[in-house]
Amino acid sequence: MNARCITELTLIFGKDHILTELEDMIAYSYDAAHVEVLPEVVVFARTTEQISQLMRLAYREKIPVTPRGQGSGLSGGSVPLQRGIVLVMDRMNSILDFDPANRLITVEAGLTTSEIDRTAVSTGLFYPPDPGSVSFSTIGGNVAENAGGLRGLKYGVTKDYVKMLEIVLPKGDIVRLGNRCVKHVAGLNAESLFVGSEGILGIITTVTLALLPIPEHRESALAIFDTLENAAQAVADIIAAGVTPSTMEFMDNTTIKAIQNFKDCGLPRDAEAVLLIETDGEFHSAQAEMARVEAQVKKNSARQFNRARDAEERDRLFEGRRVALNALASVKPNLILEDATVVRSRLPEMVRGIIDIAARYRIMVGIFGHAGDGNLHPTFLIDMKDREEMVRTESAVKELFQLAIDLGGTISGEHGIGIEKKPFLENQLGEASMNLLRDIKRTLDPENLLNPGKIFDMPAIY
User: Fold this and answer.
1) HSE-up (13 A, CA, CB side) for residue 285
2) What Rg, from alpha-carbon coordinates, does the chain have?
3) Could you give the CA distance from residue 155 to residue 210 in angstroms, rounded to a whole number?
4) Which superfamily does CATH assign the domain made up of 217-406 to?
């Protein structure tokens, strides 16, 4: 990065929106994964036009650019592997248009997901995707990773709510894809290409999202089990019985104990597993669905089935689930959080497989996650300074991913591929599919400058 480029970047962004000192840039060298690379310069965007100018400069000078929201990603997606420029988006955080009549909201990419929901709630609407990082992750990052969350079982994930995108392409062109209408088939469904693309194809600057009416009523319950297998089978049986809870979360004993040690949320320390379940909708419908859930849970030998008596009790239970990751992080010096996913009918096999892997490799693993949509978060609790334990952990993680693939699942349900899972992607997709992905990248980013090294590697000459 030469002085001329720094001067030009300063002219684009302003001296108060650029960092070049080592100490200032350290915070932008990593995310929630376990990789750290220091950028050469950090810039803070405030407009789409600034980003367009940045990409024209980057392409002219062949400088890599890594987009970044709040750095909450779990797969290394915002780590600047080839140094260059880190483009921080969190100052682009305005609500551009809120249209309750059409159940739409248009926002800049740096707005937090929770702020979108707070705005929607004021008119009786809500934004369904609710990742664990909802209070601090940005919507641009959610779109780039196709984030999910606790309500994914009934309401789907980010891709199900994206109506329009404004995107800066790698050469600096600005495109607007999608439409505000409920239906549109004018041209290719190109906006979907960028959802889950992890910043390697374009930089998302604004997003138009669909909203839904807030359900009339919610029923919440905690099912307590003495075996992991029974809890997992109950999940499969509830879905097979035709019930679609809005939330169905799974936590094993390791996770339960960690949560209770971290913060008392009323979970039973002696349970091998619990399911946190919620139904919603019209009052009688939500109650009837919960009654059907209870029947399936009891069929699978649940020790207890406790319905929340009021909103305070419900919120306390859900708080336990939301602090699960922080609680597990307090157990050992380090953790590796995964998000292997299978179809729901194979969840019991997945849980048994994880238990077996943990036992054979002698590793402490906490299991929690969105069991209703088959998305588990096996969390390896380790000490990275223990090299021998790290070797065992790396083998265990590799086997975990292969187990998910063998069960017809995927190596990532919502965290993305990034750096962490890149070595395993071809095992799932196959060579021909990987070549297709590279062809798409090559077409849009012929110099491989936008977030290079994520999802897959490109040939040195292509």
Assistant:
1) 10
2) 22
3) 12
4) FAD-linked oxidases, C-terminal domain (3.40.462.10)
CA distance 89 to 138: 9
CATH of domain 3-88: 3.30.43.10
The whole-angstrom separation of Cα 452 and Cα 168 is: 16
**Cα–Cα distances in angstroms (integers) from residue 238 to residues 152, 167, 247, in the given order:** 16, 41, 12
CA–CA separation, 202 vs 222, rounded Å? 43
Render pLDDT for 397-452 as a digit per residue (tens, 0 to 9): 999 999 999 999 999 999 999 998 999 999 999 999 999 999 999 999 999 999 99
Is domain 102-213 annotated with CATH 3.90.226.10?
no
Burial class (CB in 10 A: 0-12, 13-18, 19+), 219: buried
β-strands 41-44, 85-88 pairing: parallel
pTM summary value: 0.93
- Identical fold, 3-88 and 102-213: no
CB-side neighbour CA atoms (13 Å) of 403: 25
**What pLDDT digit, counting tens, does each position of 118-139 carry?**
999 999 999 999 998 888 999 9
Ordered by start, the domain boundaries in the chain are: 3-88, 102-213, 217-406
Q: How far apart are CA 437 and CA 430, in angstroms?
A: 11
Q: Could you give the C-alpha distances from 330 to 81, 87, 174, 381, in angstroms and in order? A: 29, 31, 44, 9
